[in-house]
Write a structure and sequence with these properties.
The chain is an alpha/beta fold and 284 residues long. It has 11 helices and 10 strands. It comes from Pseudoalteromonas aurantia 208.
């Protein structure tokens, strides 16, 4: 094990087998990236990573980034979460379209045009700025804390819970998928609006991604367990976080599209990685 790998595992609190588990993903990317560069004469490359809440997509993104940097490549990492709208902006959406849009999470609650412009600037090899979102405060960090990248990197890793996802077939929207939708979206206006957003500007963003990795958690029940673990870690770092009941309520906003991802992304992604209950990877 290399020194930087040991430091990464220690910082993230990961077991030693993480290196072994992630190696096939890194090998796949190296082969994919090399082929793409030969075909396109070394154009900038955007890698997307999709995974449910708590799946470890952010950890994988940063591990791949560190590994690729060790190979001499320059990397930037951003999350779709970093593009969340402020509470004030979401409040306007809630008044215009549906009260549930006051809560961050679903397509429609991101500054999606900013995300598109950011990736386009990267693709054009121009300077760009990556926003950052403070989940403990539920609002974007002040712009002075955003990351400005003057020299565009070789690779941009763009991770997020619905990255690469296509809109749902309309027939899937007919019935609520959980208590939240059954009680607060009785006419289906919320889920139809979310689906319309996903079908529009989000597809423009996703079209800029060169290859997509999908971390398939296989069951939605794991999302609650892993999201609870994330919240505990957040509390340890910042002293703030959601209660178990708040987590249970919060993940219902993500349930519909997470389940749709499980049904559709294994075939649509460029690399599908199944995960077991202990977060271990298996390439399929």
């Amino acid at each position: 094990m290399k020194k930087w790998q040991y430091a990464f595992l220690k910082k993230q609190g990961l077991p030693a087998h993480y290196i072994q588990d992630a190696e096939p993903i890194l090998s796949w990317f190296n082969a994919t990236y090399t082929h793409a560069q030969v075909q396109s004469n070394r154009l900038p490359f955007c890698l997307g990573i999709n995974g449910a809440q708590g799946s470890g997509k952010s950890t994988l993104a940063h591990y791949l980034a560190r590994s690729l940097e060790a190979q001499g490549l320059s990397i930037a990492v951003v999350s779709l979460d970093d593009f969340y709208l402020s509470p004030e902006e979401r409040s306007i959406l809630a008044k215009q379209h549906h009260p549930l849009l006051a809560t961050r999470g679903v397509p429609g609650t991101h500054a999606i045009k900013l995300a598109i412009e950011t990736v386009r600037l990267f693709k054009a090899q121009k300077a760009f700025t990556l926003p950052r979102f403070d989940k403990s405060q539920d609002r974007p960090f002040l712009p002075k804390y955003w990351q400005t990248i003057e020299v565009p990197p070789d690779i941009l890793i763009f991770e997020g819970w619905c990255v690469g996802l296509k809109s749902e077939p309309l027939e899937r929207l007919c019935h609520p998928c959980n208590t939240l939708e059954a009680q607060q979206d009785t006419q289906g206006r919320y889920r139809r609006y979310v689906n319309q957003c996903l079908a529009a500007d989000y597809q423009t963003l996703f079209s800029l991604i060169d290859k997509l990795v999908y971390l398939n958690v296989q069951t939605f029940e794991r999302v609650y367990q892993w999201r609870q673990q994330q919240e505990q870690q957040l509390k340890c770092k910042s002293g703030k976080g959601m209660t178990e009941q708040e987590v249970s309520q919060f993940i219902q906003y993500f349930e519909r599209l997470t389940r749709w991802g499980m049904a559709s992304l294994p075939e649509q992604s460029d690399l599908s990685v199944t995960m077991d209950s202990t977060h271990r990877f298996n390439l399929t």
